[in-house]
Specification:
The complex is a heterodimer of chains A (455) and B (280).
Chain A (H helix, E strand, L loop, with lengths): L3 H31 L3 H13 L11 E12 L3 H9 L4 H8 L2 E12 L3 E5 L6 H8 L7 E6 L2 E2 L5 H10 L1 E4 L11 H5 L1 H6 L3 H14 L15 H14 L4 E5 L7 H18 L2 E6 L2 H7 L2 E6 L2 E6 L1 H6 L4 H7 L10 H4 L6 E3 L3 H12 L3 E5 L5 E6 H9 L4 H4 L13 H8 L6 E4 L5 E5 L2 H13 L1
Parallel strand pairs in A: 3-8, 3-9, 6-7, 7-8, 11-12
Antiparallel strand pairs in A: 1-2, 1-4, 4-5, 9-10, 12-13, 14-15
Helix pairs in contact in A: 2-6, 3-4, 9-10, 16-17
Chain B lengths: L3 H41 L2 H16 L2 H17 L2 H31 L3 H14 L2 H12 L3 H25 L3 H9 L4 H34 L8 H11 L2 H27 L9
Helix pairs in contact in B: 1-4, 1-6, 2-3, 3-11, 4-5, 4-7, 4-9, 4-10, 5-7, 6-7, 7-9, 8-9, 9-11, 10-11
Classes of the chains: A alpha/beta (455), B mainly alpha (280).
Chain lengths: 455, 280
């Protein structure tokens, strides 16, 4: 009888060796990955400690720098890239090579601590772009530098550590684990890090409190409303204490009221925790409300990058202006833009007679009163001034101190709200109460029509 | 007369018997161990004590009075009709077969779900195993293991495996893409992705497969009586030979009662996927 060894050898040499390796690969991968070790974490931290954040021209630190990022779907990405570089359109490339262009030559910088919005219609490539940034989708070409470290060529073990500790993600349809209660959902990322149970549940509890879900620790996802589920999603992402948060259409599945509430909540959390956030959305209002900078994506390329105001006031092309059409610009534009210099003001020391004279020559019904440092004290009207002059009183007797003021960065929609309650120009003051200018009621109409003017 | 296909199958069986007979022998002995262990409990315990134990287990698993009453009544009726010993032999084989089938089938299902190479191969094999008439398995089983309980168990394992493999495969493949992305974006290893996201999410589907597996085991164990498996199946084969309606109906009813009891029990496990028991 032939020995079993001989039999086995025969089979192996018959070329089944390669077959066997193919067959066992998924298992070997799984087993190898069990042994993901503390060593990887130390290695990751060393790499990030060594690296320095690049700075932009203003000297601000850059959290994420993307250069020439492209993603081609299909079999011959190299050929497609060549054609694109030669100036062919995406349709031509699609027809010539059968490859789909997901992203082409995308570059941008995200400042540390800002909310950077990737905005575009569905199919524009914004979600693909975000997934390329942590290599959930492998980019075809280009460079992604996070905190000075190039992610593009990082090995799998390091990349896993980066995902565990540096970047976390909030998903559109929440992606909560249905078999886990809320506290264990929130602790998920910590569990992957290998933190022991009491510790991770303690951190999870803190994060649950932070997002306002105290009392729901033992509930299951199916028992929560959409808004609450996304709070869990947010808590799960925050629990690992990441430097960077990716939010993929995070609020798009929520109804408008809840969405608004979550946006406010996110802004609050952001000003408290100061994380860098990449926020993907198709909703321009959301982008304008949340974004420090907005990148408009069209067909896998960036149409325009800028602050919300820049985009509203100077759309780069027809695509962008078609986007901003219909936006209520008073929600974005600030008082500063419509502020005029104060020509009619009087210093408190100048006395009521001078004030009356200035008022009459200005042909206005009222006058602002400031002190020596230009700090706003209040305003005076003609009849009270005349009374003060007749009574030989001081200017102070005539001053109305109860005047509504706004800050330079107040949104026009709030300014207009104040305007309708008063007949006078609204004074704009800075943090020290110094009068910077006024917003005249006549500009309210201008603010409303600003959007129109752009078109 | 058979064609070359049959001749080939025969040659293959002979080849296996000749070269791997020792391995099959060993396998038979390994299977004897759980059969003996569980058999000792089932055969030697007082029926009444066992019924009480079954009632306690069902209450624990289902947490429902009515279901528990149904399960307990099923075994009480079997005892009252006088088919206790046969039923215990059958139950022994069902439990061991189903357990072995699940232990083999779940990893196979996971493999099929995770490997585009293994998937079509396993799928074809499962199609083959499921549609091949159950009786056919008995022939090589007898050649390899002789007559008795062990060949019955082996044939049952093969017959009962496919639904678990299929539903495990399907369950994992139906895990939403976003769940995989959640696992990956938080830095899961492949193993963590499987154990913390894919398997738990697929659990209701896997449990449905296990329920099917147990039902199929029961039907096959009855057929296995033809090769000396014993139990209720043997009673039915006797009844068939003697055209004994009374015996046939009673033994058949006992099989139905066991089926109902096992189905309710495993269904409770499956629903537990959405209830509280199976949660972490």
């Amino acid at each position: 009888m032939k020995s079993l060894d001989d039999e086995f050898h025969g089979i192996m040499t018959a070329g089944l060796g390669s077959l066997r390796s193919k067959v066992t690969k998924p298992f070997r991968n799984a087993l190898e990955s069990i042994q993901a070790s503390e060593g990887d974490r130390a290695r990751m931290e060393a790499v990030f400690d060594e690296a320095e954040n690049p700075l932009d021209e203003d000297g601000d630190e850059i959290a994420i720098r993307v250069r020439g990022l492209s993603k081609i779907y299909g079999k011959h990405p190299g050929r497609a890239m060549e054609l694109l570089a030669e100036g062919h359109t995406k349709e031509e490339v699609q027809n010539l090579t059968g490859n789909n262009v997901g992203l082409y030559d995308v570059s941008f910088d995200v400042k540390k601590g800002e909310i950077f919005v990737l905005m575009g219609l569905s199919g524009s490539g914004k979600s693909t772009l975000e997934r390329c940034l942590n290599r959930l989708i492998e980019p075809t070409e280009g460079q992604i530098v996070v905190e000075g470290v190039d992610l593009t060529h990082m090995d799998d073990d390091l990349l896993r550590e980066v995902r565990r500790r540096k970047i976390s993600m909030v998903f559109q349809s929440f992606g909560l684990l249905p078999h886990r209660d809320i506290k264990n959902n929130v602790a998920y990322g910590l569990e992957l890090q290998g933190i022991r149970e009491e510790e991770r549940l303690r951190i999870a509890q803190e994060t649950i409190d932070l997002v306002g879900l105290t009392g729901y620790e033992d509930s299951y996802p199916e028992e929560l409303s959409g808004g609450m589920k996304q709070r869990v999603g947010l808590a799960r992402a925050l629990a690992t204490d990441p430097d960077i948060l990716f939010m993929d259409e995070a609020f798009s599945a929520l109804d408008p009221l809840i969405r608004n509430e979550m946006q406010d909540e996110l802004q609050k959390l952001h000003s408290r925790l100061g994380r860098t956030i990449i926020f993907v959305t198709h909703d321009l209002d959301e982008a304008l409300k949340l974004g420090d900078h907005i990148a408009l994506i069209k067909d896998g390329e960036i149409a325009q990058i800028g602050t919300p105001e820049e985009i509203l006031r100077n759309p780069a092309d027809d695509y962008v202006s078609s986007f901003v059409r219909g936006v209520d610009s008073t929600k974005v534009l600030t008082a500063e833009l419509f502020m005029k210099k104060v020509t009619d003001k009087v210093r408190i020391s100048q006395g009521p007679r001078t004030a009356l004279k200035i008022l009459r020559s200005s042909r206005r019904s009222s006058l602002f009163v400031v002190d020596h440092d230009d700090r706003l004290i209040g305003m005076v009207k003609q009849e009270r001034l005349i009374r003060a002059v007749n009574a030989e009183g001081s200017l102070m007797d005539a001053v109305i101190t109860d005047v509504p003021t706004v800050a330079a960065d107040s949104l026009m929609k709030d300014v207009i709200q104040i305007m309708v309650t008063t007949d006078f120009p609204i004074p704009v003051v800075d943090g020290n109460g110094i009068l910077l200018g006024i917003v005249d009621p006549s500009v309210a109409a201008e603010a409303y029509s600003e959007g129109e003017a752009i078109r | 007369m058979t064609s070359v296909v049959g001749t080939f199958a025969e040659a293959l069986v002979d080849f296996v018997e000749y070269y791997f007979g020792w391995l099959l022998n060993l396998l038979g002995r390994v299977l004897d161990v759980p059969l003996d262990l569980l058999g000792n409990v089932l055969y030697d315990t007082e029926p009444l004590i066992l019924i009480v134990a079954i009632a306690a287990i069902s209450l624990l698993v289902t947490r429902r009075m009515i279901t528990t009453a149904v399960i307990t009544a099923a075994f009480a009726i079997i005892h009252w009709m006088g088919y206790w010993n046969s039923a215990m032999i059958t139950l022994n084989m069902v439990i061991v077969s189903a357990a072995v089938a699940i232990v083999i089938a779940v990893p196979l299902g996971i493999w099929a779900a995770r490997s585009e190479f293994a998937n079509p191969v396993i799928k074809t094999l499962m199609d083959f195993m499921q549609t091949m008439p159950a009786f056919v398995y008995l022939i090589p089983a007898v050649i390899f293991f002789g007559l008795g309980v062990v060949p019955g168990v082996v044939a049952t394992v093969i017959f009962a495996m496919p639904p678990v493999v299929r539903l495990t495969n399907l369950g994992i493949r139906q895990v939403p893409v976003e769940m995989d992305e959640v696992a990956e974006s938080f830095g899961s290893t492949e193993f963590q992705k499987l154990t913390k996201v894919q398997l738990p999410t697929a659990m209701p589907s896997i449990m449905a497969g296990i329920n099917q597996c147990i039902m199929l085991s029961l039907s096959m164990v009855v057929i296995a009586a033809m090769i000396g498996g014993g139990g209720l199946g043997q009673d039915i084969v006797f009844a068939l030979n003697r055209v004994d309606v009374a015996l046939g109906f009673e033994a058949g009813l006992a099989v139905v009662l066991i089926a109902i009891a096992l189905d309710r029990l495993t269904q409770a496990l499956r629903d537990g996927g959405n209830g509280s028991e199976l949660r972490t």
